[in-house]
Design a protein that fits this description.
Layout (H helix, E strand, L loop, with lengths): L9 H22 L6 H14 L3 E5 L2 H11 L7 E5 L5 H8 L3 E5 L10 H7 L4 E5 L10 H11 L8 E3 L7 E2 L2 E2 L6 E5 L13 E5 L2 H11 L20 H32 L13 E2 L5 E4 L3 H10 L29 H9 E4 L7 H15 L1
Parallel strand pairs: 2-3, 2-4, 5-8
Antiparallel strand pairs: 1-9, 6-7, 6-10, 8-9, 11-12
Bound molecules: pyridoxal-5'-phosphate.
The site of pyridoxal-5'-phosphate has 15 residues, from helix 3 and helix 4.
C-alpha cells in the first residue's frame, strides 16, 4: 500500500519551520507574557501590513472575530444580517450569538460565492449588516455586493463584513481580502491557510473607531487593568498563538504561491474530464484554501478516493438553511437551489503547500480510474 495522502498535512508544514516555531514558543515561555503583550501587538502589526489594512485586532477565533465585529457595529436583537448558507456554520452562529437573525441568500453557480442580485432582493429596513464569505479562498465580488446593498437600502450605510476565514492573501482587482469590506474576519484555525496551533482569529479594518471598539470588547471592556468602560468578553488572541503565527506569517506568501501552482496543475490535469472544475473570475486571484470539484457521482468518487488512501472531503454537505440548528427560521428544501445543488455535488481534493507533484499525480490517477 502506498502512503496515504491527507486532505491537509500539518506535520509536513511543521517539519519545514520547526526551528522558527520552537524558538517563538520558547520566547513566550521564558518571558511568561502569556496574555496580550508584545507578541500579540507584533503579530497584529505584521498581519495588518500583510493585508495592507490600517488596523488588525487579534481575537480568540474566527467565530469570535465575526461575533465581536457584529457587536462593535451595534448589531443585535431585531436586526437581520444577510449571509450565505454555503459556508461553515460559524458564519451564521455569530449572527445568532448577538441575537440577530441570519437571512440566507443563494450563491452564484460559478464562484460558489454570494450572488449580488440575490442580496439586493433580501435587503429590508431591518438589515444591519451583510456577511459575504470568500468560500474556498475565492474572493467574493464585494464591489458588486456593496453596490447592490447600497441601491436596495436607498443609500443607507449597511456595513459589509468579509468572512475571510478561508482567504488569507486572496485578491480582487489587486486588493487584498481584509480591506475589501468595512471589516474582515480571519480564522487561524490550524487547517486554515495561516494556521495557529490552537484557536485564534483576527479582524482587519480601516475604520479606527471600529478597531478600538473591538479591542475594548475582546478584553472585558477595558483599556486599563481595573476600569471597565463597557461590558465586554474574554476573547483575546493568546500570546503563544500570536508568537507562532508571527513565525509562520513570513512564509504565507510562498505557501499561497505553492497552492496556486498546485491548483493550476489540478485544473490542467483534470481538464476535459466530466468533473466541473473551479472557475476563477478575471478580477480574482484566489488563496486556494480548498480545490473543489463537482460531480453528480460525488459520494461514489469520495468512497473510491478514501479506498485509495486519499483524504478527500466535503465542504459542506448540508447548507445552513437546512441544518436542524436553523429549523426555527422556517426554510424549506428548494429555497436556495444553487446552494443545495453545490452541497450535493462538491468534493474537496487534497491541497496543501507541501504537496508533491507525485502525490498530486496519484490523486489525479485515482480520479481518472474512477471516471473510466
Ligand atoms: C473556519 C471558519 C470560520 C470559523 O473560524 P474558527 O476560527 O474555527 O472559529 C468561520 N467561517 C468560515 C467560512 C470558516 O471556514
Amino acid at each position: 500500500m502506498p502512503a496515504k495522502i491527507p486532505l491537509v498535512d500539518l506535520a509536513a508544514q511543521y517539519a519545514t519551520i520547526q526551528a522558527e516555531v520552537d524558538q517563538a514558543i520558547r520566547r513566550v515561555l521564558e518571558t511568561t507574557r502569556f496574555i496580550m503583550g508584545p507578541e500579540v501587538q507584533a503579530f497584529e502589526e505584521a498581519f495588518a501590513a500583510f493585508c495592507r489594512a490600517q488596523h488588525c485586532v487579534g481575537v480568540s477565533s474566527g467565530t469570535s472575530a465575526l461575533e465581536l465585529t457584529l457587536r462593535a457595529l451595534g448589531v443585535g436583537p431585531g436586526d437581520q444580517v444577510i449571509t450565505v448558507a454555503h459556508t461553515f456554520i460559524a458564519t451564521a452562529e455569530a449572527i445568532s450569538a448577538v441575537g440577530a437573525t441570519p437571512v440566507f441568500v443563494d450563491i452564484q453557480p460559478d464562484s460558489y460565492n454570494m450572488d449580488p442580485a440575490q442580496v439586493a432582493q433580501a435587503v429590508t429596513p431591518r438589515t444591519q449588516a451583510v456577511i459575504p464569505v470568500h468560500i474556498y479562498g475565492q474572493p467574493a465580488d464585494i464591489p458588486a455586493i456593496r453596490a447592490a446593498v447600497q441601491a436596495a437600502g436607498n443609500g443607507r450605510a449597511i456595513p459589509i463584513i468579509e468572512d475571510a476565514a478561508q482567504a488569507h492573501g486572496a485578491t480582487w482587482q489587486g486588493q487584498m481580502t481584509g480591506v475589501l469590506g468595512d471589516a474582515a474576519c480571519f480564522s487561524f484555525y490550524p487547517g486554515k491557510n495561516l494556521g495557529a496551533y490552537g484557536d485564534a482569529g483576527a479582524v482587519t479594518t480601516n475604520d479606527p473607531r471600529l478597531a478600538e471598539q473591538i479591542r475594548l470588547l475582546r478584553n472585558h471592556g477595558r483599556r486599563s487593568k481595573y476600569l471597565h468602560e463597557v461590558k465586554g468578553f474574554g476573547q483575546r488572541l493568546d500570546a503563544l498563538q500570536a508568537a507562532i503565527l508571527g513565525a509562520k506569517l513570513p512564509h504565507l506568501a510562498g505557501w499561497t504561491d505553492a497552492r496556486r501552482r498546485l491548483a493550476a496543475r489540478y485544473s490542467q490535469l483534470l481538464q476535459g474530464s466530466e468533473l466541473t472544475l473551479p472557475r476563477v473570475a478575471p478580477e480574482a486571484d484566489p488563496a486556494w484554501h480548498l480545490y473543489v470539484v463537482r460531480t453528480p457521482a460525488r459520494d461514489e468518487l469520495l468512497a473510491h478516493l478514501h479506498m485509495e488512501g486519499i483524504g478527500a472531503g466535503i465542504h459542506y454537505p448540508i447548507p445552513l438553511h437546512l441544518q436542524p440548528a436553523y429549523q426555527d427560521l422556517g426554510y424549506q428544501p428548494g429555497d436556495l437551489p444553487v446552494s443545495e445543488a453545490v452541497a450535493e455535488s462538491c468534493l474537496s481534493l487534497p491541497l496543501y503547500p507541501e504537496m508533491t507533484e507525485e502525490q498530486q499525480d496519484r490523486v489525479v490517477a485515482a480520479i481518472h480510474a474512477f471516471l473510466g
